[in-house]
Amino acid sequence: MTLLHVTGARPNFPKAAPVIAALAAAGVRQRLVHTGQHYDDRLSEVFFRELSLPTPDLNLGVGSGSHAEQTAAVLVGLEREMLETRPELVIVYGDVNSTLAAAVAASKLQIPVAHVEAGLRSFDRSMPEEINRIVTDRLSDLLLCTSADAVAHLAREGAATESIHLVGNPMIDTLLAHRHQLDSERARRALGVPADYLVATLHRPGNVDDPESAAQLVRVVHDAGARLDVVLPLHPRGRAVLEALGIGDHPRVHVVEPLGYLDFMSLVQGSRAVITDSGGVQEETTILGVPCLTLRPNTERPVTITHGTNRLVTYDTVIPALDEALIPAEPGARPHRTPPLWDGHAGERIADVIIDWLGEQVPR
Ligand code: UD1
Ligand code: UDP
């Protein structure tokens, strides 16, 4: 009996690491496929090194392309893999194209699917991730949720109650497991950044693909740089357009390559505030208590607002919101709570759900 984990893009890796570790500790046989959706060392390999992920048994090497090209290449590669290895269960993570393709490939072969981070909804189908989430959830037999709102969405959409499990957030397992290795002082000194600084990450198509939006982003980042130094580890998507618009042409804006997990989380932990459009960063800042300004019209992670430090902003409201976040607060004046079950043990709970489920299956 073998379980198959499918990962492919940067946000998959910190989610998969604690699940794979917990299942390994329970003695379950596992295979790991990397689709190759992300392939740069800084978006991929570095996470395997730093998060002690096992070397993938197979890398499909699908690389970049249009949504159809990328999804189709993963489908073809995974169908072959699943026909050869016949896993009992395929475990998929988050909302990237590799996640969707793995769920489709497995379902067509009648192989059950477990979706880690099921039920998140932005209700915005202009985001490719929203389509990936909806389809993946519809095809999944085990729906493993990070938050109560996700459970409610799935119930409302008619998912079987026994398939839905509130397990907490494995991304936060990874953060808590590595917190002792974070060194904000060293990370910011290595970049020549003063003690007070901001971190920014921007990669959503809605922000970086359109030159007009990208120009607004450049203005926002430069306005932020007029207040404090900004470290911007730039995702390859949008790099060309943002650089052509002069994003780095400001003495206090430090445009760097994407960072490894430990350097990145060290910088976030030590920062005064974060400006982002990332999904994971909204969750990590919630735990670290760092103000998070999310440049998006919506979020599929509302618990980061109700419990955490997150706030949705526009190109017009981000700088006033930043000024507010930078006002030194009395201790306890900005309370934030840890969302339920974001306690470092989601991986173990996921492993328990999967092992119980395997025990209930009639042998084929
Ligand atoms: C993908 C996910 C997004 C996630 C993001 C995390 C989808 C639809 N999108 O977006 O949900 O938030 O990853 O980082 O799955 N590129 C490189 N090197 C790489 C990978 C990509 O240079 O290793 C460049 C290529 O020019 C590529 C572009 O980045 O065309 C976009 O890559 P892609 O995987 O299609 O989507 P992301 O924008 O990375
Ligand atoms: N991350 C990192 N280095 C960076 C930017 C991000 O290690 O330079 C980590 C961080 O933990 C983040 C995760 O990668 O939560 C996923 O990042 P991304 O924003 O690419 O994906 P999303 O969560 O938006 O899908």
What does this 3D model show about the protein?
The model has no long low-confidence stretch (mean pLDDT 97). The chain is built from 16 helices and 13 strands. It is α/β, with parallel strands linked by helices and 364 residues long. It has a seven-stranded parallel sheet, with helices on both faces. A six-stranded parallel sheet has the order 10-9-8-11-12-13, with helices on both faces. It has two domains: 2-169 and 343-360, Rossmann fold (3-Layer(aba) Sandwich), CATH 3.40.50; 184-325, Rossmann fold, CATH 3.40.50. Residues 9-11, 37-40, 43, 64, 70, 95-97, 128-129, 203, 235-237 line the site of uridine-diphosphate-N-acetylglucosamine.
Tally of discrete structural domains:
2
Number of helices: 16
Beta-sheet strand percentage? 5-15%
Total E-strand runs: 13
What top-tier CATH class of the largest domain fits best? Answer: Alpha Beta
Order of helices and strands: EHEHEHEHEHEHEHHEHHEHEHEHEHEHH
Q: Tell me the major beta sheet.
A: 7 strands, parallel
Strand order of the largest sheet: 3-2-1-4-5-6-7
Distinct bound molecules: uridine-diphosphate-N-acetylglucosamine, uridine-5'-diphosphate
Summarize the topology:
Blueprint: E1 3-7, H1 12-25, E2 30-34, H2 45-50, E3 58-59, H3 67-85, E4 89-93, H4 97-108, E5 113-116, H5 128-139, E6 142-145, H6 148-156, E7 164-166, H7 170-178, H8 184-190, E8 197-201, H9 205-208, H10 211-225, E9 229-233, H11 239-244, E10 253-256, H12 261-270, E11 273-276, H13 279-288, E12 292-294, H14 303-306, E13 310-312, H15 318-326, H16 346-360
Parallel strand pairs: 1-2, 1-4, 2-3, 4-5, 5-6, 6-7, 8-9, 8-11, 9-10, 11-12, 12-13
Helix pairs in contact: 1-7, 1-16, 3-4, 4-5, 8-12
The structure holds uridine-diphosphate-N-acetylglucosamine and uridine-5'-diphosphate (UDP).
Uridine-5'-diphosphate binds next to helix 12 and helix 13.
